[in-house]
Amino acid sequence: MSEGTPSRGQIESHLERLLWSGEMDRRRFLGRSAGAVAMTSGLASFLSACGIAGTAEKNVEQLAKIAATVNHPKVPIENWVFSNWPLYIDKAVLDEFDEKFGGNVKYVEEINDNNEFFGKVRPQLTAGKSIGRDVVVLTDPMAARWVRSSYVTPLDKRNIPNGVKNLTDPLKSPPFDPERLFTLPWQSGSLGLGYDIEATGRELTSMDEFFNPEWKGKVTMLGDVLDTVTAVLIGDGVDPTTAGVDGYMKGIEKVEKAAKAGQFRRFSGNDYTTDLTKGNIVLALAYSGDMVQLSAENSNLKFAYPEEGAVLWTDNMMLPAKVEHPFAAETFMNFCYEPEVAAKIAAYVNYIPPVKGVREILEKSDPELAANPLVFPTDEQQKKFYPYGQFSSVQRQELDRAFAKVTGG
Fold it and tell me: CA 123 → CA 13, 25, 128, distances in Å?
């Protein structure tokens, strides 16, 4: 490094102070692909557009060079830790992995909420220490936050050839990780209308139904601002990826007006499923995978993608910073991207698999699941999927505060 050029540690320290002081957002780009260097110009433009100027912009080239040095040697797999959401894998897959590759995976079902989990491990992350997990699974907005804050270890893609080869095309280039240098999708899902057709007396297909006075007091929306407001914006014909803070604030105002009029029973987490099954509500902003399982138990419960378009979210596998067993983690990622293994996971969780070839396998073993558009959306449905808007930590806090006044959170 030439004299006068800031060290990597100096760059990170400076950016961290700016990020958490609220003066700017940041996004660091690490990885090992040769394409990282080629992306330098585009990344500089992206950083500038996000309000990341000065040191970060000037040193993108240096960060891209660091990206090309990632190397996780092949070592014997011993004990390692996988942190995930509850009921999110067929545990026979874990046993199969241990038997095939050796070692023992400690599987911890501890992520019930992205923010809650982040709060648990943030002290170690900010101190530059290991969090004692080798793989964590986080939803897009939180994954983006970890990438921006350098709380991830870049992937050595030489150890994950299946991930490169078998990742489905729509998930290859999310805005927060366009080259998938740090993340690999675990499962995807959508938000839409979960409803009781016996109570409604008809099919529901539009986001307008959430504001229909016919269902006053019998509707739930989700308590997360990005979930609810992104869905509302799409329903109003607004692209959430270009709406910005002002657009999201307008969406919050619409929800607030309806809430004050008594339209919503409450703002919920996953417990909306209880309200639906007990008949407390007739309509919920719901997760597609939940409704696959609920409708199997009660044929009156239906799910519909909004005709205006739907939110598509992804939970992502990531290696935390200071990861202790990167080769074991990457070997597991590669294992899960074998279509046969991914099919076992999909058959258990009923969400949208990110791996090519899964549907063809399930057409033979579980034709009903393979034909379910909640697990395998049609091409027409996929054309109407939108990701969440992208916001800096400071902007997200602004939206959270505004939405908390609506939800009472």
Answer: 16, 19, 9
Task: Report whether 103 contacts 79 (CB < 8 A).
Answer: yes
Dist CA 36 CA 57 (whole Å): 15
DSSP letters for 155-210: P-GGG-HHHHHHB-GGGS--TTSTT-SSEEEEEEEEEEEEEEHHHHSS----GGGG
Cβ atoms within 10 Å, residue 2: 4
Distance set, CA 271 to CA 8, 223, 278, 280, 404 (Å): 44, 11, 11, 12, 18
Bridge partners (DSSP) listed for residue 196: 301
pLDDT surpasses 80 at 59:
no
Through-space distance between the first and last CA atoms of the chain, rounded to whole angstroms: 49
- Show the tokens assigned to 184: 């690999």
Shortest CA distance to 130 belongs to which of 151, 103, 107, 108? 151
Q: Where in the chain is the domain with CATH 3.40.190.10?
A: 189-311+389-407
The pLDDT confidence band at residue 142, using thresholds 50, 70 and 90, is very high
Express each pLDDT in 206-237 by its tens digit.
Answer: 999 999 999 999 999 999 999 999 999 999 99
Model confidence band, residue 342 (pLDDT cutoffs 50, 70, 90) = very high
| Nearest-10 Cα torsion for 76, 346, 241, 212 | -150
Q: Which CATH number is 189-311+389-407's, of 3.90.780.10, 3.40.190.10, 3.40.50.1220, 2.40.10.10?
A: 3.40.190.10
301-304 and 283-287 beta bridge pairing: unpaired
pTM for the structure as a whole:
0.78
